[in-house]
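Human: My hope is that you can spare some time for a protein that puzzles me. I am handing you a single protein, as its sequence and its fold in token form. Could you go through the record with me and say what the backbone is doing? Take your time, and here it is.
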Amino acid sequence: MRKIKSMLWWLLLGLTGLWLWVDTITTTPLAFMAMRNSLINYTGVLGIGMMSVGMVLAVRPVWFEPYLGGLDKMYRLHKWLGMGGGILSVTHWLVVQAPRWLFALELLTPSSGGRPPRQEQTVAVFKLFQSLRGLAEGLGEWAFYATLVLIALALIKWFPYRLFFKTHRLLAATYLILVFHSVVLMNYTYWSSMLGAVMAALMAAGSVSAVMVLFRKVGERRKVGGVIERVEHFAELKVLYVFIKLEGRWAGHAAGQFAFVTFDSDEGAHPFTITSAWLDDGRITFLIKGLGDYTNQLPAYLKLGSAVEVEGPYGQFTFDSTKPRQIWVGAGIGITPFVARMKSLAQTPDDKPVDLFHCTAVLDPSAIEKMQADADGARVNLHVTVDDRDGRLDAQRICAAVPQWLDADIWFCGPPAFGHALKQDFVARGLAASHFHQELFEMR
């Protein structure tokens, strides 16, 4: 979280600093229309800047994962950028509309702050921009309305994923219109400054990414087909094991990583953590929890031999650390990356002591038996807590079970609120925040 917060602030402060460097707001008298025009450009620069970075993150650039801590963190930043870009777009629109409302209320008159005459441009490209102002303003306004609707749909959890999957792609089209709007209407003096160069680079990168989204090229080189080999359903737990035989080249994956899996092209790709270690045999396994309409229907929908598409791997939740021991906490379906790690350790043993705490609402003996077998094979100490029987797991109970907990770093996967509370508790007890690793497995 710290990394993505830092990047968000660096982006905002960086663009603000560059804007202050070139804009006249600090060097001219504070006339209403002059300030309004500066604020139009400022909100526009920040808005399209945030949307541009968000669009780049939408194409899942793997090379960026180490800097932000994984694709799950990148998607959290993507969400923040989308919300921030939307808020700034509303602010931009309000600043644009303000004089009309003030004139209508007779709070502003031409003599007190009307629009100054527009200077005729002599540079050919700026003359072209000037001739396109009306078109850019009209298209930009409609793209703004559409963008707000699409962002709202993305944030509404009850909006079906299969529809979100289709409508969210339309943001790439509205983004391209807003780029046209920004290029034509941005203060022409900005283009000869560092701010102009930065904005050009951001909008160019965002535009290339938007075209990739529109033509469905996201993750194209990381996709491989396969067929379902076996399915195991733990009905009481509402959990499904799906065994897939890949039929293309898979580069391999580390324990703890995830992939986007498409079982139904109409539904689109869903992210699932990989449960199996990579043995270079073309086989991969996913443990899927029934958490919504789609995943609840999978036990009846999936058939042996059905075609699937797998894209990945992604993620940095890969258990890399310098601490002498580890503590894992897997709540509910959050146990998945730890199952994969145990299978990996069974193949490649590690002398580092590991304690795994699994919290579950339902105790399924057969599932626990499989988990215990994995733990024994990996030489991992398994602690199982059942909510109704044992109450909620907290830092005090973990510290009591692992007296050497200060020598460990903690890896958590499960409900975000639970992870946040656990992290705060451990930090209060003296654990460095950087030693608590949490996967933010929310892609929308």
Observations:
- The chain is about 50% helix and 15% strand.
